[in-house]
Design goal:
Layout: H1 2-38, E1 58-60, E2 66-68, E3 76-81, H2 86-97, E4 104-110, H3 118-123, E5 128-132, H4 137-141, E6 149-153, E7 159-163
Parallel strand pairs: 3-4, 4-5
Antiparallel strand pairs: 1-2, 3-6, 6-7
């Protein structure tokens, strides 16, 4: 009978210890979740800051045309997209529709394997598209740190705004 009583006491003590540890784990998970909820949903400094000079770069599009990062006749919207990036896929329709015809649009699909970018090239067919490896001059010149990165450049070569979403860019009425 004594063994039964000792066994029950040990089981109760272990159950209480387990309960205390579980409450500690739950509290810790709630703290971590609150940190995640408080963190920004996009990465800061996704491109060159507003007011900085834009690099004057040229590239050949998939259709063979030459494009420039600065169009002297109108502002240029440059988008950097990476295949396999879900937010990039979400931004493509917005990128194509942004500003109607008032802005020159250049999409840079960044991939080391050009075949990976075929879907993006097809979806971006309404704009000038260039496919480049990850560390080419455009990515470095515009200080791309995450994807998608959007950058609006004025006709005189000054960055008007950049970021991961269109909310980070100025509206054309303020340009």
């Amino acid at each position: 009978m004594i063994y039964l009583a000792v066994g029950v006491v040990i089981a109760v003590v272990l159950t209480l210890l387990n309960l205390v540890l579980m409450f500690g784990v739950i509290r810790r998970l709630r703290e971590l979740q609150s940190r995640v909820d408080a963190a920004p949903s996009v990465l800061p400094d996704a491109g060159l800051p507003a007011g900085s000079p834009a690099p004057e770069l040229t590239a050949t599009t998939v259709s063979g045309a030459e494009v420039s990062s600065v169009d002297p006749a109108r502002p240029t919207l440059i988008g950097f997209f990476s295949p396999g990036c879900a937010p990039c896929a979400d931004r493509i329709p917005e990128f194509v529709d942004y500003a109607g015809t008032g802005v020159a649009k250049v999409a840079v699909v960044v991939t080391d394997l050009p075949a990976e970018g075929d879907d993006y090239v097809r979806r971006l067919s309404a704009v000038d598209v260039t496919v480049q490896p990850g560390q080419e001059a455009w990515v470095q010149g515009f200080a791309v740190t995450s994807y998608p990165t959007l950058c609006l450049v004025s006709s005189d070569g000054v960055v008007l705004g950049s970021g991961n979403t269109f909310g980070d860019l100025p509206t054309l009425s303020t340009v």
